[in-house]
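Researcher: Please predict.
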Amino acid sequence: MTAVPDEPEAVTPFSKAPPGDASIEPDTPLSENDDATISFAKRLAHNDKQIREAALKKVKRWLVTKSKHGTLDYANIIKIWKGLHYSMWYSDKMLTQEALALDISQTILLFSDKDHAVNFFSGFCETIAREWVGIDRQRLDKYYMFIKTALKSVLEFCQVNKWDDAIVEDVVTVLDVRIINSTCPDSIAVFISEQFYSVFSEFYSAAVPSLFVTKLLIAYITAISKTPKRDLNRVIMTNLFTPIKSSEVNFNIDVKLLLDHIYTVSTHSDILTRNRKLLYKLRSELSTVFGGHDISPLGKRKAENGDENTDSKRKVENGDENADSKLKVENGDENTDSNIDNGVVATKTKKKKKKLKSAVKKEEVKEEGAVVEEDKTITNGTTCEKIEELETSQEDVTEVKLEVKPEETIQEDVTETEQSPEPLTTPEAEATKKEKVPTATLR
């Protein structure tokens, strides 16, 4: 039998060589001096499928036994998870990968000690966060499937334990510390936010408490307040909070606890201004959805001071609600632009006068009871013949000064002429009268 080294060989994500000793057979017993966790990790990361499957069965029995005796520590769990991670690495074909992911994830249900079960899930989160940067593009899909399967298993673990508050808080704390608000890549937290509602709906019922969903949302609220990445905030809001605002999901949520946490993180001095505005807006929208009233900082302050709708109340009490419109009606200035009747020339006519394309001038000349109308059309295309005819026709007419008088003055002149007696005429006066040109009136 080939001796197993005490220290594990270096395992690189892109290494094609088996990370363990290929000469170890599945049924080879472990020596008493060997470190069991290191040996298990080597066998789990073997490139032979039979060795990996046999090692997985032994690992599950070993974990259960150690948990019963209370000798399972977190360091051993991390070493085991190193091998489990690369066991998934070497797994091929979709059905085989799904069966392996389910077999590994269901191990959490075998622990008799609940703390050991939570530590097992914590080891998964820590390992997947640490090894994520080394996963190539061709293997990303199966690890996303692995994360979703593990999330289902931990929710089933909470359901089996009747959603105990202590277990729920421990599980959500693991997600918060290891993934959501940690230094691991954001893609893992984003994937969990995308899949959470669909996975949680499989275990949800009216009897499920609101603690799990509320605590998870609180963890993501903290992530929104800390991150400087706008895209991350937008994706989290779309995946988790938009369905709540649009009533697409109807899970039990502790609204008061959630809104209080939003307000608490929003008032921190080190939060970015845009994140604070985003959280204030979210808090106002959620409060409107759940409570039917605005409990944003501004709305809350108005409610406390009793000053809500102060301006409208003051206007109603003082009768000044339509003060501006009343003032216009009283002064007769409501439609000032449309009520110009006192000989005021509109500005539009000035613009028309500037255009010399079409200007029509009409004069009516009345001489001895006859009305003579002449149309003088002056345009850019006016011919010289029309202008000459107008000039020749005006030469024979004696220049007459037309005086326009108001109607009142005309009536006074008429009454004076009617009342004044007709003066005596002499032959000389009649001669001079005939020589005068009769006056013309302008219509």
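Model: The chain is about 60% helix and 5% strand.
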